[in-house]
Amino acid sequence: MTNNKVLAIVSGGLDSTTMLWKLQADGYEVMETISFNYGQRHTKELDGLEKILSAFEEQFGREIESKVVDIRVMRDLAEAGAVMGNEELPKQAYDAETQRVTIVPNRNAVFINLAAARAVAMEYRYVAYAAHSNDHSVYPDCRPEFVEAMDRALELANAWTPVNLMAPFVNSSKADIVRVGKELGVPFELTWSCYEGGDRPCLQCGTCIERTSSFVQAGTPDPLLTSKEWEEAKTYLPAPEQ
Ligand SMILES: [Zn+2]
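Above: the input record for the complex with zinc ion. Below: its predicted structure, written as tokens.
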């Protein structure tokens, strides 16, 4: 029997949530999610994860285990930038230069390696993460070259117990992800993207701008926005990078 079991790296955000629905639609068995508390500014995304997994269970009748791994030691090892350190988060812009401050050193390689250890131990065939093409210019660990190299490294490192890396959105834009998610009935209202941890999205930080402009581009309203905010967003937001 084919082993279609997947360990999905998730954050509670739009991309990794949509990835769960896509893996299910593509015939994979998501067995478990893994998330990381790495000393980021807030863990609001992770707080929403439980509701997301309940919604998944309700829609597909399958329960997914979830695991949150504390790797706050990353903060001692690599305190730098805005996400882990104390630098200001960039506002009102989402280009490569201003977003570089949000890089967490070697983040995805660390996440994927820890996830792979779990996958091997549990005999899951795949580790999946939600890298997408809008991130290519800022985060090198979201590029196809990295996915291929990491996949190969996991194969070599675990030759007797094969595990492979999947990145189903690596060639998709965030707007494409919104389109896929809408089609698959993803509960966008449960997902959180803002770098700030407030009650409402700030609509000013890079991820808010990226998220909103992706919904605008996909032509579907973000349920986190009021209808007034949505109308405004449509008039001023630039189209995201492709
Ligand atoms: Zn924000």
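Notes for the reader.
Residues 194-196, 201-202, 204-205, 207-208 surround zinc ion (CB under 6 Å).
The first strand starts at residue 5 and ends at 9.
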